[in-house]
Design a protein that fits this description.
Length: 299
């Protein structure tokens, strides 16, 4: 594998039960940070990394994701007629020209590995990316996936994003053990899904960005249910590293776990504080809110 990735898979079939009742009708990937849904941040990151084919693995209830990436004729016409060119651009740029969206249904929620396997026919025999939109990664420089795609292209190996987490949190993540790191990369020796802290081989956790060799598909086909009774991508990666090099990559950037309430709040705060138009008022109102609650000013 030393080709550049062109295709990205977005598993978006999860139920999002943590965000009920909102997710009764709004898929969790459509929850916004400021004015863009989480899925848009992940899509932009994939496009920046060079992807032009986006594969959404959805379930039959998730029309909102497909609708969002579809052309909105009436809305575009209205905005055009009323001269709202800035808003028109925002709506059109949801999916830039030359980028196509493909929707694949995951009929049963059998796990992340199974969701990725559903994209097999669209991906074919080339390296590809997987992005979990819950993991929002903020960076001033190149996005996390671009950093990883460059590394994968140079080495020819699969690359998996990692970051250190507190040991008591290992049961929420895939955890890797690596050989030494050179710069940001280290070869993975072992990977295990959601180990208890006492069983975890390290506290280096997998974050939802992967660049994978297509060999993963045949390994997924023979992967049996693992942690939580689900077909785990982690288990197929464990099989892959028996055959070839798979590298862990410590990306540059800050990751927000938007699959949790506090992560979504944290991301909203960070993006507001970094926002061209909102930063001053966001800072002010945070200070006011803290002062009202009797907490000392920020800084
Ligand atoms: C998934 C993966 C896990 C990874 C995590 C990152 O778990 O299975 O290995 O560490 O994403 O967000 P999930 O959070 O979907 O349970």
């Amino acid at each position: 594998m030393s080709a550049r990735i062109r295709k990205a898979v977005f598993p978006v079939a999860g139920l999002g039960t943590r965000f009920l009742p909102a997710t009764k009708t709004v898929p969790k990937e459509m929850l916004p940070i400021i004015d863009r849904p989480l899925i848009q941040y992940a899509v932009d990151e994939a496009i920046e990394a060079g992807c032009d084919t986006l594969v959404f693995v959805t379930n039959r209830y998730k029309h909102a994701v497909a609708d969002y990436f579809d052309k909105a004729y009436e809305l575009e016409q209205k905005l055009e007629r009323s001269g709202k060119t800035e808003q028109l651009e925002l709506v059109r740029n949801v999916l830039p020209e030359g980028v196509r969206a493909v929707f694949v249904t995951q009929a049963e929620a059998l796990g992340l590995g199974h969701a990725v396997l559903c994209a097999k026919a669209v991906i074919g025999d080339e390296p590809f990316a997987v992005l979990l939109p819950d993991d929002l990664i903020w960076n001033r420089g190149p996005g996390a996936l671009k950093q990883m795609a460059d590394a994968a292209e140079a080495s020819g190996a699969s690359v998996i994003a990692v970051q250190d987490v507190p040991r008591e949190q290992t049961a929420s993540y895939g955890i890797v053990a690596t050989e030494g790191f050179a710069k940001r990369q280290g070869r993975i020796r072992a990977i295990v899904e959601k180990p208890k802290p006492e069983d975890a081989p390290s506290n280096l956790a997998v974050v939802g960005r992967y660049v994978l060799n297509p060999r993963i598909f045949s390994l997924l086909e023979s992967t049996t249910p693992g942690a939580g009774g689900e077909i785990q991508l982690t288990d197929a990666i464990a099989a892959l590293l028996e055959e070839e090099a798979v590298n862990a990559y410590r990306f540059q950037g800050t990751r927000f776990d938007c699959g949790t309430h506090i992560g979504l709040i944290e991301a909203t705060i960070r993006y507001a504080l970094d926002h061209e138009k909102l930063s001053d008022s966001a800072r002010q109102l945070m200070q006011n809110a803290l002062a009202e609650l009797g907490v000392e000013e920020l800084n």
